[in-house]
Amino acid sequence: MRLNDVHQGIQKRKKARRVGRGTGSGRGKTCGRGHKGQKSRAGSSASVIFQGGTMPLVRRIPKRGFNNRFALNVTTVNVADLERTFQDGDEVNPETLRVKSLAKGRYDVLKILGDGTLTRRLKVSAHRFSQSAREKIEQAGGEVCVLGGQSQPSKKASPSS
User: Fold this and answer.
1) Secondary structure class of 128 (helix, strand, coil)
2) Which one of 7, 43, 132, 136 is least enclosed by Cβ atoms within 10 Å?
3) Could you tell me the CATH number of the domain that includes residue 96?
């Protein structure tokens, strides 16, 4: 075999199959659709979940609960975890938390919770803070920085009618 023979006969775009061009072509008369039936007709296209008239599996399985596909995926980190992992004067942000394996995986919002105690001065950057976490960080002499992007929803009063 030679190097110039490697791609011999390989085409980038496959030619469309020409059907209905006589019996000698092997795709004449019924054009590969067979005789009669739903799929032999022009314009036939069954639903993706169609199972020959039987109730489809998708509709047979019970559906329970509520699934909010627009809900944000919130990852939480406790103040006690920050105390255990970081040193005095460190900067805490989503990148450093990922490196220290405190905020793994995919998430939309990072929230710091106030479970535990904090004695170290840390500059903490996150999307949301619980009230107790904010107080503990500031009480320890640290700094709270709220990140942009996904932020805490505003608590607007609904208009009464």
Assistant:
1) strand
2) 43
3) 3.100.10.10
